[in-house]
Design goal:
Blueprint (H helix, E strand, L loop, with lengths): L1 H39 L14 E7 L1 E16 L3 E4 L5 E6 L6 E2 L4 E5 L2 H36 L5 H34 L1 E3 L4 E3 L9 E2 L8 E4 L4 E8 L3 H9 L5 E5 L6 E15 L4 E8 L11 E18 L4 E2 L4 E6 L5 E12 L2 E6 L6 E5 L10 E5 L11
Parallel strand pairs: 1-21
Antiparallel strand pairs: 1-20, 2-11, 2-15, 3-10, 4-6, 4-9, 5-8, 6-7, 8-10, 11-14, 12-13, 12-15, 13-14, 15-19, 16-17, 17-18, 17-20, 18-19
Helix pairs in contact: 2-3
Length: 398
């Protein structure tokens, strides 16, 4: 009875084992089909996963425009002249006629030194001159009388010679007195301290009532010329020859000054001079640009970026620099055709300036180039063009 019992329990187990094997084979087949589809289905970007529409890319339209050819260099704002205003005489400051930061003109009175000592010196010099002039006049009249008597033979020639020497002596004294008078007048004029140049005054070094000396190194105040003002900037040495050729041709090169991050134009001027030597430590040469600075946008010792306009390419085909790709053999771009398929196009670059590049050949105005998403592309790929900045394609890219 026991074996029968064993058979009755084993039969169902065998049935269940056969059913499990069938399920295992079914699951294995499904896995093969799934991974086979994954392996052999067409590949693509995010656009393919959404129904095969294409690969999303950012595009811009090539445009025909005038392309400026510029050189850029870092520089600093440098005044054309700076003057320390010093008193040329010693004395007490009795008046200050300027405000700190004020713009003054050449010859304008800035301060006054107590003039009374110099007025007294002038009076003394004039008095001494008057005394010697009177003596000269008397000696001259004596000389005329002696000349008459010598001619008559009444007086000897020796007395005439002596009187002539006296007259010459007084003439010399009068000239010396005249010099003393002029010196006193000059010192009196120097008691009024004037601006030696036009410009903006800084912070004063003396206060009202201070006694100043002509030998004081700090002076009263410093004046810095700000209108016009210059910017000294540097360019690589290999650009010197080009700049020289243009300057020798008589054309005045335009220069623009920008802030540190090149986001704001501060002023416009022109190139004034090129330095006469190259700095061997940096391989650069200094240039000076002149700016009217009527609005005082440029401040002495301010760091700026200078942009030198060398030329203008007329009616050039311009694309964003981001569209350029480099292969071992050439530069190329991806051009989006009307059907949304991209074409690889070799291009020749004329010049690149910042975010824009002018092409000599390879793309014509109006064609659409890919500027972002290029890493997903190959020739003949289908794309979904998204214009730069949204909306319609932005002509000019940058």
């Amino acid at each position: 009875m026991q074996p029968d019992s064993v058979d009755s329990q084993t039969a169902p187990l065998e049935g269940r084992a056969g059913s499990g094997a069938k399920w295992a084979w079914a699951l294995a087949g499904a896995a093969v089909l799934f991974f086979g589809y994954r392996a052999f289905r067409p590949t693509g970007g995010a656009g393919d996963a959404k129904g095969g529409r294409g690969i999303p890319v950012t595009v811009a339209t090539a445009r025909k425009t005038d392309m400026p050819v510029t050189l850029e260099g870092l520089g600093s704002v440098t005044p054309l002249s700076t003057a320390v205003v010093r008193s040329r005489v010693d004395g007490q400051v009795v008046k200050l006629s300027f405000r700190e930061g004020q713009v003054v003109r050449q010859g304008e009175v800035l301060a006054e030194i107590d003039p009374r000592p110099f007025q007294i010196q002038l009076m003394q010099a004039e008095g001494q001159r008057a005394k010697n002039e009177a003596s000269l006049k008397n000696a001259t009249m004596d000389l005329r009388r002696i000349e008459s008597l010598v001619k008559q033979g009444i007086l000897p020639q020796q007395q005439l010679d002596a009187q002539t020497a006296v007259v010459n002596q007084f003439e010399g004294a009068v000239k010396s007195d005249q010099g003393a008078v002029e010196s006193a007048k000059l010192n009196l004029a120097y008691s009024r301290v004037t601006a030696p140049i036009s410009g903006r005054v800084g912070l004063r070094s003396v206060d009202l009532g201070n006694t100043v000396r002509a030998s004081d190194p700090n002076g009263l105040v410093t004046i810095t010329q700000t209108q016009p003002i210059s910017v000294v900037f540097t360019l690589p040495a290999d650009r010197v020859a080009h700049v020289q050729r243009v300057m020798q041709g008589g054309r005045k090169l335009a220069v623009e000054a920008f802030d540190r991050d090149m986001s704001t134009r501060l002023a416009a001027g022109h190139l004034e001079a090129l330095d006469n030597q190259i700095d061997p430590t940096t391989g650069t040469v200094k240039l000076r640009a002149l700016f009217p600075n009527a609005d005082s946008a440029l401040f002495p010792n301010q760091f700026v970026n200078a942009r030198l306009l060398m030329d203008v390419l007329k009616e050039a085909v311009v694309i964003p620099t981001a569209a350029l790709q480099r292969s071992p053999d050439a530069l190329y771009v991806y051009v989006v055709k009307a059907d949304g398929v991209v074409e690889l196009r070799n291009v020749t670059v004329q010049v690149s300036v910042g975010e824009d590049t002018a092409l000599a050949q390879g793309v014509v105005a109006g064609e659409v180039v890919v500027i972002d998403g290029v890493d997903k592309l190959k020739p003949g790929a289908k794309v979904i063009p998204n214009p730069l900045g949204g909306g319609t394609s932005k002509k000019g890219g940058a």
